[in-house]
Amino acid sequence: MAAVIFGRKKMIKNADGSTMEKGYRLVTGGGFFRIPILEEVEFMNLSNRTLKVTVKDAPNKDGVMTTVELSLIHISEPTRPY
Questions:
Q1: How far, in Å, CA of 57 to CA of 70, rounded?
Q2: Residue at 55 is within a domain
Q3: Total structural domains in the chain?
Q4: Is residue 81 part of a domain?
Q5: Burial of 21 by CB count in 10 Å (0-12 exposed, 13-18 middle, 19+ buried)?
Q6: Is residue 80 part of a domain?
Q7: Phi/psi class of residue 38: alpha, beta or left (left: φ > 0; alpha: ψ in -120 to 50)?
Q8: One-character DSSP codes across 22-61
Q9: CB neighbours of 37 closer than 8 A, spacing ≥ 6?
Q10: What sign for the dihedral angle of Cα 11, 12, 13, 15?
Q11: Which tops the pLDDT comparison, 31 or 16?
Q12: 41-66: per-residue pLDDT in tens?
């Protein structure tokens, strides 16, 4: 599980020295402090699910029969802690 804390914007410095505004932070381990009025928290499950689909004898646009293999990785949506 990872916590996504969002709502309050702050300036961060990039590796090249430039600055940018960021409105979220991601916490994957340890603890964090949240400012209740200014920030919200969503929890995101980091486990993924792989779905493999195979379609045999599918015609392509030239009419040649082919086999199509597809792998999808699904990451679940964030859930509210309450």
A1: 14
A2: yes
A3: 1
A4: no
A5: exposed
A6: no
A7: alpha
A8: EEEEEE-SS-----TTT-EEEEE---EEEEEEEEEEEE-T
A9: none
A10: negative
A11: 16
A12: 888 877 777 889 999 998 989 999 99
